[in-house]
Amino acid sequence: MNHIRKDSVTNLSGFETLKSNSDFRRAYARGKTYTNPALVTYVNKNRAGICRIGITTSKKIGNAVQRNRARRVIRAAFLCVRQDIQPGYDIVFVARTKTVYKKSTEILEIMQKQLDSAGLLR
RNA sequence: CGAGCGGAAUGGGCAGUCGCGUGUGUCUGCGGACGCUUUAUCACCGUCUUUUUCAGAUACAUGAGGAAAGUCCGGGCAUCACAGAGCAGGGUAACGGCUAACGGCCGCCGAGGGUGACCUCCGGGAUAGUGCAACAGAGAUAUACCGCCGGUUUUUUCCGGUAAGGGUGGAAAGGCGAGGUAAGAGCUCACCGUGCGUUCUGGUAACAGGACGGACCUGUAAACCCUACCCGAUGCAACACCGACCGAAGUGGCUUGCUCGGCCUAUACUUCAACGGGUGGCUAAAGGCUGUCGGCAACGGCAGGCGAAGAUAGAUGAUUGCCUUCAAAGACAGAACCCGGCUUACAGUUCCGGUCGCAUU
RNA sequence: GCUGAUGUGGCUCAAUGGCAGAGCAGCUCAUUCGUAAUGAGCAGGUUGUCAGUUCGAUUCUGACCAUCAGCU
């Protein structure tokens, strides 16, 4: 049962998603931080051997529509870089107020710069 | 043409590329059956199979709102044995209708506003009772400060009558005139005003109009309260089933806040710890559209055809071009069991029907 | 998603429908060689916002806004 479920998640986006609060808190506490007015990235090494991502959109950003838009823009930007990422890391993206008004191509440039300085890009 | 009133609709469209949820079909794998093999089983290999479970690929279909929001009312649905009685508590408030129901809607009455179209109103009872009315004022539901009149003393004063006049206040015993009196007073009378009772006419009714009688009473019930009607509690995190845990502590427990009544009994209930398990509940609905009939209308009857979101860290996105536009498609905003309302937010556009003013015919 | 509670000076809180108050903090003066403590005085409020009931609302009623808590 367990391995089947992992396969389904792997297939749809190529990565597993972070779900529990403890995973996020570990990333905030131990991970390296890369900041930008439109995006904050936390990178933390894990032992699973696969890449896991999480997206945080807090209530500060706005109402439900604006939070959904920020999440979708970040997800669309991540789908463009996912083939180039080395496995074995937990990545947490935190949306900020300006994320809502950016296009996904702009977020993509920021994300590539941050992940490159983290040494995750091949 | 200008100003203003009421109602309704819309809430960008098309195409390319990359992606997501759900459903259905096809294929592949897994699985299952049989054969081969083997002492026997597994594995390998071959054939068949889709009824069921799972995964992948692919094709097709479909995929947020008018408020999805606030969670303010009402109902369905579910559990509590039945949904029972009384008390407490809560809600509603002219009248008639609509509705599954409502605090909603329609009509109508009354009051208020506007030249008008039209708009606004938690609109029962203060003559059942209790409470409150600061400050000011003589006095706040009962009275006598100034004043006026009579008596007494006489320089003062004291006693009685009075509510016309003064001033205070949101509110001071209905207004005004005549008679009357020592001075006055609904004390008496005419007219007017207010609400009450009886009765007549119109209306289903609230109510409106008329006649007669007797009265003049402060405000506040979004103060307690009274009257009439309504409400059992908890909410899909309800609840049912399967799995895991199957540990510790305490106690009879449940039904309603209380009482009665009732039910279940240690495989029960509560708390802590833990699994942050899975499946169902889950979407065709008191649904909307068109026509027609009934009704002033809300709404109801009949006929036709329409009618696939169902996620669970939570799917509708990203990006490019063109069209539309004065303008870069730019407002408010994301279903979470489902409906009927209410309230609040909202860029721009369109349509319909009244009103007033000015000008022309 | 559901349920409930609270908004008063810079902070913590009080209030019978009738002048908005207390403590701490702030400022000025006194005291001291100076500071603290102490004493005297001063200032600071759209009572979350908007409507309504009332002669009058922090208080009563409704709508909205913000914050906090609980339920798997």
CATH architecture: 2-Layer Sandwich
Q: Would you report the number of β strands?
A: 5
What can be said about the biggest beta sheet? 5 strands, mixed
The share of residues in helices is 40-55%
Q: Total number of helical segments?
A: 4
What structural class do helix, strand and pairing data support? alpha/beta
What value does the Rg take, in angstroms?
14 Å
The helix-strand sequence is HEHEEEHEH
* Poorly predicted runs: 1-14
Strand content: 15-25%
Average predicted confidence as pLDDT: 73
**Strand sequence of the main sheet, in spatial order?**
1-4-5-3-2
How far from one another are the termini?
A: 33 Å
What is the general shape?
globular
Fold-level CATH name: Ribosomal Protein S5, domain 2
Q: Which CATH class is shown?
A: Alpha Beta
Q: Domains counted in the coordinates: how many?
A: 1
Describe this structure in words.
By secondary structure, this protein is of the alpha/beta class. It has one domain (2-118): 2-Layer Sandwich (Ribosomal Protein S5, domain 2). Helix content is 45%, strand content 21%. It has helices spanning 2-13, 21-30, 64-81, 104-118, and strands spanning 16-17, 32-36, 39-45, 52-56, 89-95. The chain has a 5-stranded mixed β-sheet with strand order 1-4-5-3-2, sandwiched between helices. Helix 3 packs across helix 4. The protein starts with a helix and ends with a helix. The model is unreliable at 1-14 (pLDDT under 50). The protein binds 2 RNA strands through residues 1, 4, 7-8, 11-13, 17-20, 54-55, 63-69, 71-73, 75-77, 79-80, 103-105.
